[in-house]
Amino acid sequence: MTRRERQDLIDAGHLLPLMEEFYTIQGEGFHKGTAAYFVRIGGCDVGCHWCDVKESWLAELHPPTATTQIVENAIKYSNTIVVTGGEPLMWDMEPLTNQLKTKRVQTHIETSGAYKLTGQWDWICLSPKKMKLPTDEIYGKAHELKCIVYNKDDFKFAEEQAAQVNKDCILYLQPEWSKRDKMMPQIVDYVMANPKWKVSLQTHKYLNIP
């Protein structure tokens, strides 16, 4: 395969920069506590300074992997597949999700929403970031909004984002892990004063699993 042919397959979403894949318990948001197979795609230019997977940022570090191979691996373990990153929507998700849907599995995505929404999704977790805001399209399609709280200014940002999602979208506030002891009391107070919000925790870290 020539370099050009390989790049064409990447551009079309038939090859994806696969950072890692693993079977575990979903630790965050609406589906926390349920078993799922995670597919982490490399590449992200959003640039959160507190990101705990910065090794995912450079797509070139992760081998272009055939979507057929990703699907074959995933369906061995679970009927719920979570695609995360990095920022997976930097790539065309149609080939991956089309193949997963032929296997009759549930497809979930965790995204900042900063890129065009591609793929067929049963659940969209939108986790917007100030540095690169979501597209207008995804606000109306998100099933849950997960806003990370690093400091008190993030409450204002969360409300700005909540004002744009659809009425059925579930709203979560989640403390950034390194600031959890400081911010959790503030999040609890905020949710009690604003009960449209729910608290999300990274329960997988408390359970010491991936």
UniProtKB/TrEMBL annotation:
Q: Which UniProt keywords apply?
A: 4Fe-4S, Iron, Iron-sulfur, Lyase, Magnesium, Metal-binding, Queuosine biosynthesis, S-adenosyl-L-methionine
**Catalytic activity entry:** 6-carboxy-5,6,7,8-tetrahydropterin + H(+) = 7-carboxy-7-carbaguanine + NH4(+)
Q: For the Radical SAM core domain, which residue ranges apply? A: 31-210
What Enzyme Commission number does this protein have? Answer: 4.3.99.3
- Residues that, per the record, bind S-adenosyl-L-methionine: W50, C51, D52, G86, S127, P128, K129
Please give the start and end residues of each transmembrane region: none
Question: Which cofactor is recorded for it?
Answer: [4Fe-4S] cluster; S-adenosyl-L-methionine; Mg(2+)
Pathway noted in the entry: Purine metabolism; 7-cyano-7-deazaguanine biosynthesis
SUPFAM superfamilies referenced in this protein's UniProt entry, alphabetically: Radical SAM enzymes
Cofactor note (record): Binds 1 [4Fe-4S] cluster. The cluster is coordinated with 3 cysteines and an exchangeable S-adenosyl-L-methionine.
UniProt KW Magnesium keyword: yes
Residues binding [4Fe-4S] cluster, per UniProt: C44, C48, C51
Which PROSITE patterns does this UniProt record tie to the protein? RADICAL_SAM
- Which amino acid positions bind substrate, per UniProt? I25, Q26, G27, R40, T84, P210
Report the superkingdom from the record: Bacteria
Assembly mode: Homodimer.
Q: So what does this one do?
A: Catalyzes the complex heterocyclic radical-mediated conversion of 6-carboxy-5,6,7,8-tetrahydropterin (CPH4) to 7-carboxy-7-deazaguanine (CDG), a step common to the biosynthetic pathways of all 7-deazapurine-containing compounds.
Q: Please report which protein family the annotation says this sequence is part of.
A: Belongs to the radical SAM superfamily. 7-carboxy-7-deazaguanine synthase family.
Write down what this protein is called: 7-carboxy-7-deazaguanine synthase
